[in-house]
Write a structure and sequence with these properties.
about 140 residues, alpha/beta, Hypothetical Protein Ychn, Chain: A, five-stranded parallel sheet, 5 helices, Sulfur reduction protein DsrE, DsrEFH-like, signal
Amino acid sequence: MKQLITLAVMAIILFGGLTAVSAQTTYNKEQNNYIVLTRKIPQLKAILSAADELAASDGAKFGEFHVVICGETVKGLTDIEQMQPFLDMAKSEKIKLLGCGFSLKKFGVDATKLPKEMGVVDNGILYNFNLQKDGFLSITL
């Protein structure tokens, strides 16, 4: 019994720190919302620069901007030195950096090792489709 309680507490601690993001939320369709799927961490610089320019040109109509990192490049998400410049660029609460849970599992990346500013979605492709249903503009790089 003690082992079961210990395992349950460890699981809560292990997974409690992760930010799970769901596409079940309904977003304001009166705003311009965006989602980008990328397979290369270095592309984040151009993606986040585009987000800043869209925020400036959209003004009050700028909504959410989600970036899902997927594929083998998720291995680099735990490298804080590599990720910090992008985390700094994405400091707006409207910009969400997310790891694809499917890719994290496939490539053996421990989601608890991701920077605390990042979230995780179960399946980046499905997340993208669901946000498109909610009116998000989408691009995959």
